[in-house]
Every structure is written in structure tokens, then in C-alpha cells.
């Protein structure tokens, strides 16, 4: 549905910013121990809020439970399989991209953060695109299949794009210092 793709995109944008802040800023500003503590504390606070909201909604809407179980029965099996495969492929791609980046970088936390940020940003943009297309289309299944085809084409061309962006897999120069390296890493 359109609202689910929108919520997914918003959630993934949040994850993108979290990866950016945790990968590049929090360890430097707070230190690793305090950054971990902050992440744990924020997760506990958010989980507590969500449990409370869920508890209140459950008490207020006891009649909606039967409606939600009926709607899940109508969900096509093919889409469930596609969604499973999509998650499987995305995490596999992340591993492949880490291997690609290891050809041109020092394979450090910053490289991993950039890969994760790129992956999450791509997922968020896909969620927003799905939201827009679902609002325009009368057949959400066709939108889903079209987005799978588009993502397949983009994945198929990603190694060629990476090769061109890195000028033929040239190692990023780190002789100019750590700050210069971070700027180059962020701009790629």
C-alpha cells in the first residue's frame, strides 16, 4: 500500500542519518563507549515509547484485530517471495560492495559507513518512488514488479558505475592526511 511504502521510506531515511552520524561523527565527538551507550539508551527509550503506544492502541481498538488478520490472508504469495528475495539480495549486495570498496580504500569504518549510507539511501529513495507510483497506479503489484526490474538494472550496472567513479579502481590517496581521506571518502 502507498502508506506502507511512505513509512518504510521515512524509517529508512532515519536509518541513513543514523549510519551517517554513527559512522562519522559520534565516535569522534563522544568516544566509542559513550556512542555505544547513547545508541543503547536511545533504543530503550524508543522501544518503551512504541510499546506504550501499541498498548494504548490495542486497548482502544480491540475490534480491529479481526480485520487485520483477514487482510493478511489476501496478500499474494508471489509478493511475499519477492520481498524475501529482495532482502536476501540487498544484504548480499552490501557484502559485494564492501569487497568492491576494499579495492580502492583502506577498508575501514568509513568505507563501511559509506556503503551502508548508500544502501539505505537507495532503499529510502525506492520507498518514496514506490509511494508516488502506488498513488498514481491502480495496480500496486505491477508497480512492485516494475521497481524490481529497475533495481535489477541498477544493480547490474553498479560495478561499471563504481569502476568509472574510481577512475579504473585507483586506490584513494591517503598521503594528504586523515581529513583529506575522509573528504574523499564522503564525496565518492
Task: Note down, in words, how this protein is organized.
- By secondary structure, this protein is mainly alpha-helical.
- It is 83% helix and 0% strand.
- The chain has helices spanning 2-24, 26-30, 32-60, 64-73, 77-101, 109-136, 140-165, 178-187.
- Helix 1 (2-24) runs antiparallel to helix 6 (109-136) and helix 5 (77-101) runs antiparallel to helix 6 (109-136).
- The longest helix has 29 residues, at 32-60.
- The radius of gyration is 20 Å and the shape is flat.
- The two termini are 34 Å apart.
- The relative contact order is 0.12.
The parts where pLDDT drops under 50 for at least 5 residues are none
**What's the gyration radius in Å?**
20 Å
Helical content stands at over 70%
Instruction: Please give the count of helices.
Output: 8
Q: Quick one: how many beta strands?
A: 0
Share of residues in strands: under 5%
Shape: flat
- In terms of quaternary structure, the protein is single chain
The overall pLDDT average reads 79
The ordered string of helix (H) and strand (E) elements is HHHHHHHH
Computed structural class:
mainly alpha
The description of the largest β-sheet is: none
End-to-end distance = 34 Å
Which key phrases capture this entry?
0% strand; mainly alpha; 188 residues
Short description:
This protein is mostly helical and 188 residues long. The protein has helices at 2-24, 26-30, 32-60, 64-73, 77-101, 109-136, 140-165, 178-187.
Amino acid at each position: 500500500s502507498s502508506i506502507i511504502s511512505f513509512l518504510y521510506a521515512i524509517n529508512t531515511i532515519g536509518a541513513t542519518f543514523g549510519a551517517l552520524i554513527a559512522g562519522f561523527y559520534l565516535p569522534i565527538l563522544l568516544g566509542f563507549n559513550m556512542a555505544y551507550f547513547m545508541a543503547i539508551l536511545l533504543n530503550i527509550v524508543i522501544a518503551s515509547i512504541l510499546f506504550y503506544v501499541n498498548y494504548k492502541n490495542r486497548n482502544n481498538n480491540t475490534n480491529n484485530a479481526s480485520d487485520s488478520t483477514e487482510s493478511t490472508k489476501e496478500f499474494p504469495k508471489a509478493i511475499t517471495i519477492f520481498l524475501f528475495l529482495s532482502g536476501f539480495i540487498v544484504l548480499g549486495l552490501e557484502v559485494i560492495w564492501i569487497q568492491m570498496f576494499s579495492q580502492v580504500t583502506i577498508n575501514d569504518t568509513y568505507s563501511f559507513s559509506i556503503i551502508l549510507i548508500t544502501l539505505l539511501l537507495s532503499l529510502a529513495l525506492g520507498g518514496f518512488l514506490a509511494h508516488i507510483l502506488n498513488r498514481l497506479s491502480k495496480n500496486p503489484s505491477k508497480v512492485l514488479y516494475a521497481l524490481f526490474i529497475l533495481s535489477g538494472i541498477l544493480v547490474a550496472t553498479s560495478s561499471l558505475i563504481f569502476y568509472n567513479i574510481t577512475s579504473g579502481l585507483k586506490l584513494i590517496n591517503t598521503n594528504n592526511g586523515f581529513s583529506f581521506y575522509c573528504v574523499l571518502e564522503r564525496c565518492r
